[in-house]
Specification:
Elements lengths: L14 E3 L3 E3 L4 H6 L9 E4 L5 E4 L9 E5 L6 H13 L4 E5 L5 H13 L4 E5 L4 E6 L8 H25 L4 H28 L4 H4 L4 H31 L1 H5 L1 H27 L2 H8 L5 H10 L7 H32 L12
Parallel strand pairs: 5-6
Antiparallel strand pairs: 1-2, 3-4, 6-8, 7-8
Length: 352
């Protein structure tokens, strides 16, 4: 079986159709990959060397539509939750109708939500309706590129949390919160693209989806990135609540800093292993001792008996956070191994 990165050559017998036409069958794998269906028109062009080039048409995505009756919603928050769900499942147009409240009030209530949904715009329709419209260009969002964007944001969060720990600059907390929101926005976009792909398989060539394990891993790893971002935000907030006590205890400070530095190294390694299918890097992360990150903090605290209740609580919460972070990066590393055994390489000989 031919795999990603290898040119696949197939041979077909020329068939006579009627008295004046000839035909050949198309490889089923290619038809499915480009999202063709019976009745689609293909472009055939002749090259200067006499070869024929067969090109699928540009994606003609079916536009999906949903109408929401805001009058039947319990409150604006419930309406917002339903709009978000409509975005996530891939509706191109969401029409919101309302007769009980002024439409401009409804619009103001949804503006904040829409700002966090990449590719969605809010238009005021007639007097009693709002139109939420998708303007995404799907060709701009290969799935692996979205993972890279999320990783850049999470990596920046790690660096900023470390900077906050080192400098005590409280003005970094809003920046960490903004980074966390952006990771969440990418998760919503990624969810939308994956669901839309299952509805419209022609999107596969834009998203550059390779195989079922790749699709499965993309869904998981984007959610893992989001979980990691949430852990980092809560960790930064907890440090900010304890404040100067952290910096007055060199033991606590050094333990947190060393664990954060190692966390950053492991996140870098796990994502790199996933994107490059690096077996050794993935395996080294999976082989880490249990509670490796939390153990770094414990090692620093071994010879010190803390008496301050806030510092005791902080270190306990930090240990839990580092256990979660290690679990996340090891799950990422496992996904890298899943993709590794699906690829052609000297270790794995694939037959089907």
């Amino acid at each position: 079986m031919m795999r990603q990165g290898l040119e696949e050559r197939v041979f077909r017998r020329l068939q006579v159709v009627g008295r004046a036409s000839f035909s050949i069958s198309l490889p089923k794998s290619w038809v499915l990959k480009v999202g063709l269906k019976p009745g689609d028109v293909l472009e055939i062009s002749e090259g200067v060397d006499g070869s024929l080039r067969l090109s699928p048409p540009e994606a003609r995505l079916r536009r999906s539509f949903c109408r929401l009756n805001a009058d039947l919603c319990r409150d604006p928050e419930q309406l917002g939750a339903i709009v978000l769900a409509g975005y996530r499942v891939g509706y191109d147009i969401i029409q919101v109708t309302c007769s009980k409240s002024p439409i401009h009030e409804l619009s103001r209530g949804l503006e904040g939500l829409i700002e966090g949904l990449p590719g969605f715009e809010l238009d005021q329709g007639q007097n009693s309706e709002l139109i939420l419209r998708n303007v995404l260009d799907y060709s701009r969002f290969p799935a692996d590129d979205l993972i890279k964007r999320s990783y850049i944001l999470v990596s920046e969060m790690l660096n900023t949390v470390s900077s906050f720990l080192e400098t005590g600059r409280y003005d970094l907390i809003p920046y960490i919160e903004a980074l966390r929101r952006r990771v969440g926005e990418l998760l919503q976009l990624h969810t939308r693209l994956m669901v839309t792909y299952f509805r419209r398989r022609e999107l596969g060539r834009f998203l550059k989806l390779r195989n079922p394990p790749h699709i499965y891993s993309l869904i998981l790893i984007e959610n893992l990135m989001d979980s990691l971002a949430e852990v980092l935000l809560e960790f930064a907030k907890r440090i900010s609540q304890v404040g100067k006590k952290v910096w007055s205890s060199s033991t606590v400070y050094n333990g947190l800093r060393r664990s954060l530095d190692e966390s950053s190294r492991l996140v870098d390694g796990a994502v790199n292993a996933y994107l490059s299918l690096d077996l050794e890097q993935a395996y080294s992360i999976l082989s880490l001792p249990k509670e490796h990150l939390a153990g770094i903090l414990r090692e620093e605290m071994e010879e010190v008996l803390l008496k301050d209740r806030e510092l005791i609580a902080l270190t306990a919460q930090a240990e839990t956070a580092f256990i979660i972070i290690q679990s996340i990066v090891q799950r990422m590393a496992q996904l890298a191994l899943d993709l590794f055994v699906e690829s052609e390489n000297p270790i794995c000989e694939i037959r089907s």
